[in-house]
Design goal:
By secondary structure, the protein is α+β, with helices and mostly antiparallel strands. The protein is built from 13 helices and six strands. Helix 7 runs antiparallel to helix 10 and helix 10 packs antiparallel against helix 11. It is elongated and about 140 Å long.
């Protein structure tokens, strides 16, 4: 509403509101304008109607401010890791794998319980043995059934049999018990797999988070380089028009400016890609935009002992625990294979009814028994299974030894990379300061006619390169610290890599 009765200016629209961010918004001033507008309307002179309309406009305005607050959330590294652990599909899959292990434990424990079954059979036949036996089961056998003609050529008989049966394992030389132990070892392996997945995901989130910070800093560096190149081009054009520079100087600056613009385009695209990668690891929409609040700055130096770090890694690393559990599982599998050579003892029983009609019960009987099963020969399958379990145990032992050596090497590599990154920060920080001073001197010399445009452009390129190298050293230090904690098995939601 532009012109309302009474000379009011009307409520501000979205196009009229000059502030687009929460920091620049002036909610009290805007509400004051709404209040003046309400008093200018002749149809709402009554206090009650004014109150209702004022409340409605205030709610809409507050909702708009709330939307502006939520449109670009701030994101700390701790929150990013928390979102990833809640939403990432690999974590969900690892948790479901634990549920699978629970189901396998329940399945293996079923061997301790009796097996109950119910069967119903409906048959009809004139087979003499069938007719003779089922007449007895139905309780309908009479003297007439002893007639030779009836015995040899009986009339067809229908028998409806209802049977409840059970079997119960009594003793199997620990076969079921070892199977339950194997299943429980499998669950422990699944739990260690979840820990490893969480650590790996935490590392990837830390890397992606700092990659976004690095990319944003790279954009700022390239933007400064473009501004500096534009200023150089303006000075070169002025000098050329004044006859103080040749055309080649101006062309050289234009080529340099084009190169810096290209680097800026790449840097901005890299920011978008880094943000999408972070969102992917967190399990949120790829186009979601967050404001990262953790600055990219040097970490404090730590006194670390490599031998102690390697020892701790072998005690904590979840994948090494997995290897040890797999080796224990192989030993249990060998014991289980040996138990196949021993007999099993089980009890069984049944209770049944027999009749020639569904709605009557003419006879019933029960049965109890004990079964002792000896596995005398099954084509050497048990021997092959025992040999396989022994080979698997040797294989797991070799893999465990190999992983131990690999962990020591990984810890050493991460340790050295962290030391290197810390030294690079010191060197590159000095180089960045020196390149700034060198650029200042050469720019002054160029303005005084004591240096060429080539010297100036080379100094600007060196300054940009020094700043870029320093930023990469900061990124590498953060990543190396997280990598060291990952290789030691200590990377989690309370790690120093997250809070420092």
């Amino acid at each position: 509403v532009k012109n309302s009765p009474g000379g009011g200016t009307g409520p501000p629209t979205a196009l009229e509101t000059p502030c687009e961010s929460l920091e620049a918004a002036c909610p009290h001033a805007v509400l004051s304008r709404y209040s003046k507008f309400l008093h200018s309307l002749p149809l709402v002179r009554g206090n009650f109607m004014k109150l209702l309309l004022s409340a409605a406009i205030t709610l809409c305005f507050c909702a708009q401010i709330s939307f502006a607050q939520d449109s670009k959330d701030t994101l700390t590294l701790e929150k990013a890791i928390q979102l990833a652990l809640e939403n990432n599909n690999l974590i969900k899959a690892a948790r479901e794998n634990i549920n699978v292990s629970d189901a396998r434990i329940q399945f293996s424990q079923s061997g301790y319980f009796p097996k109950l079954a119910f069967d119903q059979n409906s048959t009809r036949s004139n087979n003499p043995v069938y007719v003779f036996g089922n007449l007895l089961n139905q309780g309908r056998f009479t003297e007439e059934n002893f007639a030779l003609n009836q015995l040899n050529y009986p009339s067809p008989l229908t028998n409806i049999q209802n049977r409840f049966s059970f079997t119960q394992l009594v003793f199997d030389f620990g076969r079921v018990r070892k199977g339950v132990k194997l299943s429980r070892k499998g669950k422990e392996i699944s739990e260690k797999d979840l820990e490893k997945t969480q650590s790996d995901l935490t590392f990837r989130v830390i890397k992606a988070y700092h990659q976004v910070l690095l990319s944003e800093e790279m954009v700022r560096v390239d933007e400064d380089a473009v501004k500096s190149a534009n200023a150089d081009l303006e000075k070169a054009q002025i000098s050329f028009k004044a006859g103080l520079a040749v055309e080649s100087d101006m062309l050289s600056v234009k080529v340099h400016l084009a190169s810096q613009n290209e680097e800026l385009v790449r840097a901005r695209n890299q920011v978008n890609l880094a943000r999408s990668n972070l969102n992917f690891e967190m399990g949120v929409d790829l186009d979601r935009v967050y404001t990262l609040v953790k600055p990219l700055k040097p970490m404090s130096a730590e006194s670390l002992d490599l031998a102690q770090l390697q020892k701790q890694a072998l005690e904590i690393r979840p994948d090494f625990k997995q290897a040890q559990l797999a080796n224990q599982s192989s030993k249990l599998a060998e014991e289980s294979a040996k138990s196949e050579f021993w007999p099993t003892v089980s009890g069984f029983g049944s209770w049944e009814t027999d009749s020639n009609k569904y709605w009557t019960t003419q006879g019933n009987n029960w049965l109890l028994g004990v079964n002792v099963h000896f596995n005398l020969f099954n084509g050497r399958a048990d021997q092959a299974r025992l040999a396989e379990s022994r080979f698997q145990e040797r294989r797991q032992r070799a893999l465990e030894d190999h992983l131990a050596q690999s962990i020591r090497l990984q810890v050493q590599q991460a340790f050295l990379e962290l030391q290197t990154a810390g030294e690079r920060i010191v060197v590159n920080e000095q180089a960045a300061a020196q390149s700034d001073e060198s650029l200042r001197i050469i720019r002054n010399r160029y303005q005084a006619g004591l240096a060429t445009i080539t010297d100036l452009l080379r100094a600007e390129t060196a300054t940009t390169g020094a700043k870029t190298t320093y930023l990469r050293a900061l990124f590498d230090q953060r990543l190396s610290r997280a990598s060291l904690e990952l290789q030691m098995g200590r990377l989690g939601t309370i790690s120093a890599s997250i809070f420092e």
